[in-house]
Protein: DUF3291 domain-containing protein
Organism: Paraburkholderia edwinii
Amino acid sequence: MTRLAIYTFGILRSDWEAAETASFQSATLEVFGEARASDGYIDHAGTARPDLKGKPALGHDFGAWGTYVLPRLYEGSLEPDKLTAIATLSLWRDIDSVRNFVYQGVHHRDALKRRYDWFVKGRWPGLVLWWIDDAETPTWAQGTAKLELLHDTGASPAAFSFNERFGPHERR
């Protein structure tokens, strides 16, 4: 059996501690709750570090999910109190499950509508999908590498998006 890993990446307009991100932080709690209740949801890297409450965590250990790292596409400050990169890493049963959550989930859909209030418009993909074995846990390093691969070479069975999907039998 296989599962679907999804890594998302964005850069906030302000750092995590700024007043401008307060509404994003509130929305994040609702979105994560909605994800956990969604059909097809398996797990999220954040469950390994609930103490961080969604806050950017460069260099923090997430157990089986690995150390939180950022893609080379991030050009902002690496100082903990000035970090503007936000990434998520989660596991899903299949593409339709995660796609339904992303585009049909009430809280996530509302957050998508407001994304440019909080995030800069990137010249990189905002997410990447890839298939993994049941016994495997995706890592932050894999997520960044997959996002960079999608950015650099386009969709393939190794790294793809909702627009260009590949099935688990096509993976490499």
Notes: Helices lie at 22-36, 95-104, 106-113, 115-118, 140-153. DSSP finds five helices and four strands in the chain. The mean pLDDT is 92.
